[in-house]
Amino acid sequence: MFQLDDNFLQQVGLGDLPEDQKQAFLAYFREQLELRVGTKLSEGLSDAQLSEFEGFIDRNMDVTNQWIAAHAADYQNDQVYQKLKAGAPDSASSDDILAEYASLRWLSLNRPDYRDVVAATMEELRQEVLKNKDAILADDQAAA
């Protein structure tokens, strides 16, 4: 899996950006990645499937609990759930963890290629950054 951090910025030639610009760029990159991945993953899904998945994202616990009961009633014994729970920040609620788990399980059932889609989209964006790094750096210099 990839990390959007200083190491990533070094790899794409943006490691010398000022700290505030690094954080802004990483936030923008993450937003673009989520948007593009979401668009690609939604292709071929029904409105009902999209609505169900949005329920997890929006933390609609009625949708989440119904889906869990129907598809993953033994979720507490699933290693994926256990890893999510163990790695969750202290601020994450049990509902947040359950909805995240449901979304991951849902994706594995409805879009088993989701990891490939994320990886391919990440690489596309990385190549765009590499191609445009001089312009990005020039914009930073102009703003300084």
Summary of the model, kept short:
By secondary structure, this protein is mainly alpha-helical.
Descriptive notes:
This protein has about 140 residues and is an all-alpha fold. It folds into two domains: about 1-45 and about 115-144, no CATH class; about 45-110, no CATH class. The protein is built from seven helices and no strands. The protein has helices spanning about 5-10, 20-40, 45-55, 60-70, 80-85, 95-110, 115-144. The chain is elongated, with a radius of gyration of 18 Å.
Keywords:
elongated, 2 domains, mainly alpha, single chain, 144 residues, 0% strand
Q: Can you count the beta strands? A: 0
The total count of helices amounts to: 7
Instruction: Give a quick account of the main beta sheet: strands, pairing sense, barrel closure.
Output: none
- On the 0 to 100 scale, the average pLDDT is 91
H/E series, N to C?
A: HHHHHHH
User: How many separate domains make up the residues?
Assistant: 2
- Per the principal axes of the C-alpha atoms, what is the gross shape? elongated
Query: Approximately how much helix is present in the residues?
Result: over 70%
Return Rg in Å: 18 Å
Helix-strand makeup class: mainly alpha
Spans with pLDDT under 50 lasting ≥5 residues? none
Strand content: under 5%
Task: Give the N-to-C terminal Cα separation.
Answer: 34 Å
